[in-house]
Amino acid sequence: LCRELLDLEAQNKQMLAETDRLREEEKRYRDLVESYDFTEWEIAEWSQQQAVFTFLYDSIELTVVFGPPIDGDTFGEDPSRKIVSLSFESLLDEEEAPPSSGLVQRLIFQFIESQGCWQEKCPTLQSLPQVLHDVSVVVSHCRALGEEMEFLERWGGKFNLLKTDIDDTKVKLLFSASTAFAKFEVTLSLSANYPSASLPFAVQKRIGNIGEKEISAVLSDVPVGHHYLRRIVSSIHQNLLLGPR
């Protein structure tokens, strides 16, 4: 009886260990699926010859041209089917679009162009989901940046932000506060890897003593990540502009 109890206990431990292993494996697969769960792209066309995907409110188009279908592949979706070319095109009317939309587009295409030949990265259909994922990550981050810019343009006054201006991929922020007797401009240089890296910046003093040294001290304490630009503006406001210096 004692041996049977020991055997049952050993079996229970083994079953618990197996259950834990299966839970860990399930979590790993769930995390993997979630990491690919982006709604940043839509299929505009899928034919025997090509597929067309759109991003960012149909303002960016990706055209994927297929090679000949493989024998027996009725629907032309065999993962080993060759891809002849991948090309991105901007459909944004920059003259009509708000400046923040132009900034977002320039950053996304900065990433696209930095990757070199996309057909080499995606020689077959099997690689296409990874390409869609990689582009979607950048589109998602840049779209969020555009929303931050719109927020600052609307509510910047609450942070003593007098004016926001966009020059290519640079954002110029003009701060002014009578309580701190200060007026200065901070220029932030953005790139497609926003918000995962610190932003190079330059400062131009207009009135008062707040300059590069003071801004640098504040920005060094702002961690990269979600709403990075908004948090930079908020930190400058809270640490430098709420009282006399």
TrEMBL record:
Which species is the source of this protein?
Answer: Piaya cayana (Common squirrel cuckoo)
CDD domains membership: DRWD-C_Knl1 (cd22892), DRWD-N_Knl1 (cd22817)
UniProt protein name: KNL1 protein
Knl1 C-terminal RWD domain location: 3-146
One of its Pfam families is: Knl1_RWD_C
GO cellular component terms given for this protein: nucleus
Biological process per Gene Ontology, one example term: attachment of spindle microtubules to kinetochore
